[in-house]
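Figure 6 in text form: structure in, sequence out.
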């Protein structure tokens, strides 16, 4: 049985768009007006989408159900797999008492909440986005900020907003790689075009984040640190994206801004230490002094995590892990059963890459960290059980959100919304980022949004005489500001930030910032298309006939062996330091 997608079910594009927008508008209404819990809004939105798909778009009920099941399965793996492992790793550090030392360490750098947010949410989050992506940065940084004593709403909200700057280059540049494959434009010019848009946002984002936390007046008090953070990040993001390609901008800019800000804070301190209103004032000196060995031991879970995440992003290692541990199968009853609007069947495959998934790297980091932080594995199992109980509703929410995304994509509802934007003629460059924003809002992934709309962006730009790299890059850049309000991202941040059941608060916190940043990128793209043409890189289209040689698998095994040796040496060193440590904090329960 096959069924062809319909873009204009009513034969009237205006009416079709109004009906197609109902599920999306419902999510806004449910979370902003009705203040529904995340899983309730997601489940109802999925039900509405299935009704429209079957009754209006004529999608067979069986295909609609299978599409929802496919999405829910993808929500469980790899998305929920990653979130559970990230929170599990964090909970281990808390249960062992080591997070108290991390808090002390952060306080020794600065007790100021504004500066801590820049270091963790902005810089460290960007580094994690570049290596892992898919929700890991928000999950880990939000949990860390809450553990440090941040207001949970602000911790989760600013981590979502801070995650805008690096999303385009996340997971070693996968979003741009996909945009290149779909559009036929080489990776480097797309990377260059995005790298000439987002640094403008990146340089302003630290001040924007601090203003959200403490207000504009308090943000001005630390303007030297804000400038160091923003300018160092934006400069490194621009240079790496324009001269190295899309794989490393987040890693380089994230680490570079951390180093620059920490170095700067050795010579400059704010006149006043700012904390949240309901917090006790920061003390000028700590009552407990921790040794360097204790500090390294406390940070060891995140040190191991960083090493593994970097390794998992190296292509030869990824190839070996996929070849050794990946199950790929056709989704029965759904594979090639839906014909796209172009008449070609849409493949529906499920890739269970249980070794190369970022969640697996975090699990291995957690298993290595358990003895390093002084916990027996039996207690580690108990922490894992408690983590699953803690995340039961976020898991349901993410599964429902992905079911919704797959139904609206497979039924053609998303294409209906995209089609009307593609017919805006001269003004299309202004609306091009909105397509990316819409794709990320629905799917939760800039990669998925680029897979959905990059070809449409390319074809429409050609038809109106605009360089396609402008609109394809706009799809990538517009998508990054949709990430902070995607129901999937909201669910992840709520889970990590102890806001389960309060997703509507988090959505209302971020939505206005998403719209304001989107409008900024829309005007910038319009200017790039017609006024700032000198920003557009020169390039040649990809030759589809060229075949890239497969990577040498032996390199991947060599890297894995080297990684194992380094991790063993690190574990032995940390354990030896731990044995010499006389002062060990009591576990925090």
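Output sequence:
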């Amino acid at each position: 049985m096959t069924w062809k997608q319909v873009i204009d079910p009513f034969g009237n594009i205006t009416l079709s768009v109004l009906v197609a927008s109902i599920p999306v508008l419902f999510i806004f209404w449910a979370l902003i007006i009705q203040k529904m819990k995340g899983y309730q809004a997601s489940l109802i939105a999925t039900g509405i989408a299935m009704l429209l798909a079957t009754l209006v778009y004529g999608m067979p009920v069986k295909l609609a159900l299978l599409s929802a099941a496919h999405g829910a399965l993808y929500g469980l793996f790899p998305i929920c797999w990653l979130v559970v492992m990230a929170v599990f790793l964090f909970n281990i550090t808390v249960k062992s008492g080591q997070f108290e030392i991390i808090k002390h360490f952060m306080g020794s750098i600065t007790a100021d909440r504004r500066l801590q947010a820049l270091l963790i949410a902005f810089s460290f989050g960007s580094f994690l986005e570049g290596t892992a992506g898919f929700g890991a940065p928000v999950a880990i940084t939000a949990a860390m900020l809450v553990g440090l004593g941040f207001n949970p709403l602000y911790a989760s909200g600013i981590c979502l907003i801070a995650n805008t700057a690096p999303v385009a280059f996340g997971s070693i540049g996968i979003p741009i790689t996909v945009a290149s494959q779909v559009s036929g434009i080489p990776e480097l010019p797309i990377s260059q075009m995005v790298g000439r848009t987002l640094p403008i946002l990146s340089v302003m984002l630290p001040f924007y984040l601090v203003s959200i936390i403490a207000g504009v007046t308090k943000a001005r008090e630390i303007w030297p640190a804000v400038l160091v953070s923003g300018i160092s990040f934006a400069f490194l993001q621009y240079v790496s994206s324009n001269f190295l390609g899309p794989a490393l901008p987040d890693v380089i800019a994230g680490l570079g801004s951390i180093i620059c800000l920490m170095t700067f804070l050795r010579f400059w301190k704010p006149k006043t230490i700012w904390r949240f209103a309901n917090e006790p004032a920061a003390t000028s000196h700590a009552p407990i002094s921790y040794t360097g060995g204790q500090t390294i031991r406390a940070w060891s879970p995140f040190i191991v995590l960083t090493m593994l995440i970097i390794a998992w992003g190296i292509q030869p290692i990824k190839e070996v892990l996929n070849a050794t541990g990946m199950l790929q199968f056709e989704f029965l009853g759904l594979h090639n059963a839906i014909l796209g609007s172009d008449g070609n069947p849409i493949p529906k495959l499920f890739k269970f890459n249980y070794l190369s998934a970022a969640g697996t790297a975090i699990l291995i980091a957690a298993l290595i960290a358990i003895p390093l932080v002084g916990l027996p594995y039996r207690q580690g199992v108990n922490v894992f059980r408690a983590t699953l109980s803690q995340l039961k509703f976020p898991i349901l929410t993410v599964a429902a959100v992905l079911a919704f995304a797959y139904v609206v994509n497979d039924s053609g509802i998303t294409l209906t919304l995209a089609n009307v934007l593609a017919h805006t003629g001269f003004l299309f460059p202004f609306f091009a980022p909105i397509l990316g924003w819409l794709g990320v809002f629905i799917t939760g992934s800039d990669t998925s949004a680029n897979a959905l709309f990059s070809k449409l962006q390319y074809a429409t730009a050609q038809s109106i005489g605009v360089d396609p790299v402008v609109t394809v890059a706009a799809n990538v850049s517009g998508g990054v500001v949709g990430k902070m309000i995607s129901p999937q991202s909201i669910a992840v941040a709520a889970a990590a930030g102890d806001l389960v059941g309060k997703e509507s608060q988090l959505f209302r916190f971020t939505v206005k910032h998403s719209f304001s940043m989107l409008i900024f990128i829309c005007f910038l793209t319009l200017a790039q298309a017609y006024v700032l043409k000198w920003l557009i890189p020169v390039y040649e289209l990809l030759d589809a006939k060229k075949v890239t040689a497969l990577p040498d698998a032996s390199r991947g095994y060599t890297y894995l062996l080297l990684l194992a040796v380094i991790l063993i040496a690190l574990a032995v060193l940390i354990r030896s330091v731990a044995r010499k440590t006389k002062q060990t904090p009591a576990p925090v329960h």
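Caption detail: The first helix runs from residue 13 to 20.
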